[in-house]
Amino acid sequence: MVEEMYERFLADPQSVDAAWHDFFADFKPSQGSDGAATAKRQATTRTAPAPAGARQDGRPGTSQATAPGTTEPAWPQAPAEQTAPKPQAAPQPAPARQQAAPAPAAKQDAKQEKKDQPGVKEVKPLRGASAAIAKNMDASLEVPTATSVRAVPAKLMADNRIVINNHLKRTRGGKVSFTHLIGYAMIRALKYFPNMNRHYAEIDGKPHVVTPEHVNLGLAIDLKGKDGSRNLVVASIKAVEDMSFFEFWQAYEEVISKARNNKLTADDFAGTTISLTNPGGIGTNHSVPRLQKGQGAIIGVGALEYPAQFEGTSEKTLTDLGIS
């Protein structure tokens, strides 16, 4: 084996493992076959005799042929200087242990994930009525609108309301609000200005003006949720154009009662043609409502209070100035 490897080394040094290069640099075949003996100790059979060589101790050299199938005796190792170094395979790097894939992290709540955004304390998705309102407000951006703000005297209406409520208190009971009076005034005014009940629509890519069959008056209702939050819903009273004030009053109270008891249905929100909102209930002088698709107008009522510049003025001065 050693001689064969030596011959291969002479023919092509690269064909022999690099560990043998230093050994073969000083190797001389005439030194005997002691190096071969060491290399062949683990061999079990041989098929051809190797060059014989006598040892000084008289024992037969390891190059003696052995019969097929016989096992060679294991001889003591030769001196270190004559022993061919056993080529040691380069240590194979231990296969890197594949780290187990981390277990899928539990899905964090959407709020927590969005909370990590810089400068954001909390992000909460809109649901229910709030989501519907936001969707309608986005759609309202496509509706062409014009806004007009006017200040009108309300002294006469306030005085007449006092008279009506005093009469109801003495007779059948009940109470009339400013919204009752303004809502019914809208119904009467639409008889003179029916165009306010028409709405804009785009059909087949072309602009159209649509005239509804009835006047369905929408009422903006501020509802308080169980968690303390407030929601603004718009439910409508259907076909109010021919109602008397008493009929309108009853229909109005019915819608308000359903809203407060959470009994409004989809039909109550559908088909609104014109709306009445009252931002004055929270002290707003006037606002700019968003016109929803399918509606002709939104009438907003501001605060029924003395203007700020006249707050604290004596009643005599206010009367002289005609401020109500």
TrEMBL record:
<feature type="compositionally biased region" description="Low complexity">
    <location>
        <begin position="35"/>
        <end position="55"/>
    </location>
</feature>
<feature type="compositionally biased region" description="Low complexity">
    <location>
        <begin position="95"/>
        <end position="107"/>
    </location>
</feature>
<feature type="domain" description="2-oxoglutarate dehydrogenase E1 component N-terminal">
    <location>
        <begin position="2"/>
        <end position="29"/>
    </location>
</feature>
<keyword id="KW-0808">Transferase</keyword>
<feature type="region of interest" description="Disordered">
    <location>
        <begin position="26"/>
        <end position="126"/>
    </location>
</feature>
<dbReference type="GO" id="GO:0016746">
    <property type="term" value="F:acyltransferase activity"/>
</dbReference>
<feature type="compositionally biased region" description="Basic and acidic residues">
    <location>
        <begin position="108"/>
        <end position="125"/>
    </location>
</feature>
<dbReference type="InterPro" id="IPR050743">
    <property type="entry name" value="2-oxoacid_DH_E2_comp"/>
</dbReference>
<feature type="domain" description="2-oxoacid dehydrogenase acyltransferase catalytic">
    <location>
        <begin position="121"/>
        <end position="308"/>
    </location>
</feature>
<protein>
    <submittedName>
        <fullName>2-oxo acid dehydrogenase subunit E2</fullName>
    </submittedName>
</protein>
<dbReference type="Pfam" id="PF16078">
    <property type="entry name" value="2-oxogl_dehyd_N"/>
</dbReference>
<dbReference type="InterPro" id="IPR032106">
    <property type="entry name" value="2-oxogl_dehyd_N"/>
</dbReference>
<keyword id="KW-0012">Acyltransferase</keyword>
<dbReference type="InterPro" id="IPR001078">
    <property type="entry name" value="2-oxoacid_DH_actylTfrase"/>
</dbReference>
<feature type="compositionally biased region" description="Low complexity">
    <location>
        <begin position="77"/>
        <end position="87"/>
    </location>
</feature>
<dbReference type="Pfam" id="PF00198">
    <property type="entry name" value="2-oxoacid_dh"/>
</dbReference>
<dbReference type="InterPro" id="IPR023213">
    <property type="entry name" value="CAT-like_dom_sf"/>
</dbReference>
